[in-house]
Give the backbone structure.
Amino acid sequence: QVQLVESGGGLVQPGGSLTLSCAAHGSASSMNVMAWYRQAPGKQREFVAVIGSGGFTTYASSVKGRFAISRDNAKNTVHLQMNSLKPEDTAVYYCNAVHGTLAYWGQGTQVTVDS
């Protein structure tokens, strides 16, 4: 059984920065794809960023230029560096990982952007 462990969430002022991390535990195999999603109160869960095993990245238009996703394949770990944060970035951020045909989700970490 694979478990995704997230860390780094918290409270930050508008314009500030925050880094999220997610590590996959319980598998000796590397994840092919790792991604971040988020869900704000009353909203649907939305895609934020994704990175493949070879380093390919894609971002949602709402975060492009402000967020950066990276990974350490040996550690099955993915990071999300968030800069120039806005109140509309407030949400629960979820880590997602795919290995073969299986997908795994973290339990989420709260990010609050508030002055």
